[in-house]
Amino acid sequence: MQLNSKFEGDIKLSRLLAVIVLSGLVTACVHDAKPVEFYRLSANVGLKLNKKSVDNLKNVTVGLGPIKIPEYLNRPQMLVAISDNQYTLSEEHRWAEKLDQNILLALYETLPSQLNTDHLLRYPWSQRQETDYQVSVDVLELMIDAQGQSQLLAQWSIKPKDKPSLDKRFDCRIPASTTDYALMVKAQSQCLTQLGQVLANSLNDLMI
């Protein structure tokens, strides 16, 4: 009986020591883990008031969206190219929301001041709501290349009601960084700001 008790005591002690060691390893891993940083794009970096804005736009309704992005960008991790066909994903640097929704909201926040109108609908809108113009954007590339340059390549379209659509391509490249993620996001936001200004100018031109 004494031998069995001693054996059982040794087992309990071994288990306790294992738990203590495991807890220490988990704690060490938690302390060593890097905190995750989250980012959002904006479309108002260096934004200038639109001088082409016309009064006619006050009486029209503009629908913004949809915004499409390729599947390789449809992820929370930020993406940086290390060669023409190879990319790295950062687990510590992530988008705060879905990228297509971030782009849509950023443009939705800034376009009213550029268009001199509050009649802006965000996709998807109710079928009962009619638009005079629908703006859609198909993002083809949005990344930092291997040289640390921000790239935004997009095909955009403005569809007036009962008229042919205006379809054009937008290409923006701005020096950024391959290591400073805050600078990357700022450069990408500058490109998105320029896209917003192009859309606003094109809408105003259609109204003149």
Description of the structure:
Helix content is 36%, strand content 31%. The chain is α/β, with parallel strands linked by helices and 208 residues long. It folds into two domains: 1-33; 37-207, ABC-type transport auxiliary lipoprotein component (Rossmann fold), CATH 3.40.50. The strands form two sheets. A five-stranded mixed sheet has the order 5-2-6-7-8, with helices on one face. The protein has a three-stranded mixed sheet with strand order 1-4-3, with helices on one face. α2 (99-115) packs across α3 (181-207). The protein is elongated and about 80 Å long.
- Number of distinct beta strands: 8
Number of helical elements: 3
Do you know the CATH topology of the largest domain? Rossmann fold
Secondary-structure element sequence? HEEEEHEEEEH
Rg for CA atoms: 26 Å
Major sheet: 5 strands, mixed
What does the secondary structure layout of this molecule look like, with pairings?
Blueprint: H1 2-32, E1 37-39, E2 62-68, E3 77-83, E4 86-95, H2 99-115, E5 120-122, E6 133-144, E7 149-160, E8 166-175, H3 181-207
Parallel strand pairs: 1-4, 2-5, 2-6
Antiparallel strand pairs: 3-4, 6-7, 7-8
Helix pairs in contact: 2-3
